[in-house]
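Reader question, answered in our methods column.
A reader sent in the components of a multi-part assembly and asked whether the whole thing could be modeled at once rather than chain by chain. We filled in our standard form and ran it. Here is what they sent:
COMPLEX SIZE: three components
ENTRIES:
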Amino acid sequence: MPQFTFSVTEQLIPNQDYTDKKKQLRTHVDNMRADDDEFYVLVNNIIVGEDQKGKIIDAMKKETTARKDHDESIYADVISKISKSVNSFNEQVADMKKQRLSITYEDKTE
Amino acid sequence: MSEDIISGSEFKTRLIDLGYKDLSLKELELNIRQIYMEENGELLEADIEILKSSDIESDFVKDSGYDGIAIHINTVEKEEVYVISEGTQDLPDWLYNIKAMLAGQTIKQAQATDVFVQEAKEHFNVDDNVKVNGLSHSLAHNNNTIALLSFDNVYSVNGAQLNYYQLFNTDFRFNDAVKNEFSFNTDDEVYNLSPQDLHDFAMTYYGDKADKIDQVISTDDPLYAVSVVRGFFTLGSITMVDTNPDVPGLRELIADIPDDVIKDFQELAIDFAVASNQGGTNEGIKELIGIDVGAFKDKEGMELAGHIIANYDTMVRALNEKLPPLLDRVQTVTANSDEIFGSLEEAGYITERQKEVTVDHLTRIEKSLIDIENILKDNVNLRDKLNNPFLGAGNEIVTILRLASNLVEIYMSYVEIEKTGILKRLESIKDSHGLQEMLSSMSDGLKSYIGADMIYTSTSTKGEPIKVNISAALRMYQKSIPILEAKSTKISNFEKAIKDELDESYKDEKRKVQDEIDQVESSPSSYRFLLSKHGYYPTFNKEIKSIRVHEIFYPLEDNDFDEQLEELKKSVESGKLYIEKYRQAIEDLFEEEENVSQLFDLSRRI
Amino acid sequence: MKVKFIVALIMTIFVLGGCAMNNDKESKSSSANEAKEFPDVAAFEDEFTREFLESTQPTREGYYSFLSKTGAYKMDFPEGMKINDKSYSIDPDKNSEVVIFSSQNSNGTFIDHHVEYYSFINDPQHGRDQIEGRVGVEIKFEEVPSNYDQKLEIAEYEYENSSGIVSLITKDGVDGQIQTFSSLRCSNDVEENVCKQQIEDEKAEIKKWLKSIHLISKESE
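And here is the structure of the entire assembly that came back:
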């Protein structure tokens, strides 16, 4: 009996959404931020009153602000990287689930 | 005698303040060491043991309401016990206690203080030669001085003073001495004696006790103001401090207000204060007039009438009960409101506008109350008709609406009074009883206090002096390293999470696909549906013989966080640098104070 | 909420101001009509004291049954005495109660009794220490048999012009304790010898009376 072979691309496993991983990973960032907040609470109490001026005070205030801003930009970068990675992960896994198959069958009627 | 381990009013006051904070034993110990270091510029080289009254097995604590902390400090050369007794914080409790104390009645908490001190000594295993120092604020001073047999000395801030009626009933030697002195025979006659004579006698009698008592009192403390009232005497070495120089203190004001006015004000106050403390303005007003005005103040017309009719029975019942005594008291107060609020204004506690609005609206409240009373009088039968659901007659509806509008007026008047900010304005009175205002007024050269924190003022730079919270700076210096370390751990966790959530997860997915491939290749016949799916009809005559998967797996991409992780780790490192810079900046501000640098060093050794 | 507290506080000032006067103004308006229904003794004449008395039937000669407002104890109440409502105290949670009562018509000896109940003091040693502290002289407690299943310890002390008997009442399995303080003195016109004898007699009577005080166990309520 003759055998025939054909090739197709087949989805082997149903697709799944992994967007949730963003939240998982962001939690870690939130945890780091919480530590920063605790840190800045300690710092912010040191200079009494908002309106104190002076060379040293100004320098420290500037330093603190710069540091905060820098940390914030790192976090923003991390968050966007998380987003990109998870999106990409989603696509890559979806791609992996599709594979090329060669199917060989026998035709009994012939 | 050598000096106590803990000396200085500032130290003691800060210690009492610690008692109010809800700290664990470990935190308490660290705080004590910290304060010691800040105050003395050196570490406390001693073992510290702490016992909280709430941790004691005996039921007396929770039942008596006593709240205290015993601290056993043992340097090799010296051993001492400090007992911090807290004043009652809860307001209703306060009112009860003050009333009871005024009547010379309660010694419950003093008893409890004794028991706690005894238990603490047993717990610390110290004998009677070890000095026990009492530290107290507010009502606790009263307890501690009565319980003086437990203490070698007592230091108090804004304490509730001793009351000689109270002592007459608790200290039997004093009781006997009073009877001998004034030639009477039974306890109840004590109330017939001249308060002044009794006061003077008590002062002399307890003269030796006075040596053991040190008190710091704010002239603005409301509790000090009331010790002008019969029964109290102030014992010990007293330091008066004007903690709020903007106002003269309340003591004189109280003397100006007639007694009967005070009494009426007091009753209004207790009802209102207790209720509103528990449930807000609405509850406060509800307690006074018996009606929940908040429930209908925004309703109008028929809706309002409907609400009133539905609740009319309860309302009238409540008004019948509450109104007559309320009106009496309000009338006394309004009749004297110029005097009460006038003296508060004169003394600078409130503004003229606040006085005017308050007096005006109190008069309106009075008017509304009178109107309500008239309505109730004119409609004695109204209540009987209530049980009849068909109220019918229009004039009754009118009456009901008049009643409601009066109630709303009262509510609105109260809101107006509140809006002037008079209540906020009076906050300074409360603050003057607290420890922090007292601490703020204790300054010594460059050293002062805000809250319970130590402040240094730098004058080394040009321009305005600069205030730095040294306690906060030391806390920052001390705690920031552990915080940064915690952040490091979190960065590692994040790194691991990336591996788990991306790399490992990708491997898992790959494994699943591989498994499926194995499945497909090993039992191709199970995948007959692929024939029809891809159009190989008819399928009944076909049989799948084999399936071969030409699998291709790519490595995971976009999973590289190295750059971000590097940045995060760098931030931790720069944090350590930042802390040192901050330390340096503060040291620069206080160049002449060598000990600032030393304090920073010591703070990490606690 | 904070604001309310402040209002409360300033008002507290007035509260404080008012309290002492409050006491002055309270009058004991014992109505003559009511009094007629009661035994003709000082204890029943006084409206406040009457609130504690359970029955107009004497428990024994000269005493009526007294139930404390905490419900923690009962005792015989001497008919010739009156509770002073100014010095009476009970806390809102009924964890403590102090009753002070004094002789009204004296035959020459004056007695004040303080009966104090504390639900939160259990240790008898604490009780003894506190009593000794309050009396201010060294005392020695002796256990005497009580009429009830409880422990009664009594001690005596002498001051220059007066004498006293104190006691501690505790009961196994029952929380709290009762501390009593009784002080006795003669009026000035009594001769010293007579006074001594009178005090001795009264002391004997008080010791007998102390046996009537008994803690009520919760189970039996």
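What stands out: DSSP finds 25 helices and 13 strands in chain B. The first strand of chain B starts at residue 47 and ends at 52.
Send us your own complexes using the same form.
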